[in-house]
Amino acid sequence: MEKHGQVASLCLLLVFDAVELLNETVKVFLMQLLNFAEVVAIRRRSLEKLFQILDMYDALSGVFPNLETMVMDEFVCTEVKIVLVGLGRATKGTFMEFENAVKRDL
């Protein structure tokens, strides 16, 4: 019976190691995606790019609740929140620039 307990313990360790490895792998790709989103948020604003920013914000905010439960790293969740704020600011800034351009043309 003791041998079964050792095998079960070894299986649990392997599962935990696999989950940690998966989490780290996902984190690498997610950070690349977040870096791209951050660049989108800080680049020169233009009305043509507004829909890209809105799509990115919509996609990221839509998956965030699931991401929060899947990713065990608080740093990643904090980075997602920061990028969402940056995309929101980029959207507002783009709208403000559009409003100012319309006012200048009037």
From TrEMBL:
GO terms for cellular component: exocyst. This is Exocyst subunit Exo70 family protein. Pfam families: Exo70_C (PF03081). SUPFAM superfamilies: Cullin repeat-like (SSF74788). Component of the exocyst complex. GO terms for biological process: exocytosis; protein transport. The keyword Signal applies. Belongs to the EXO70 family. It comes from Salix koriyanagi. Residues 19-105 form the Exocyst complex subunit Exo70 C-terminal domain.
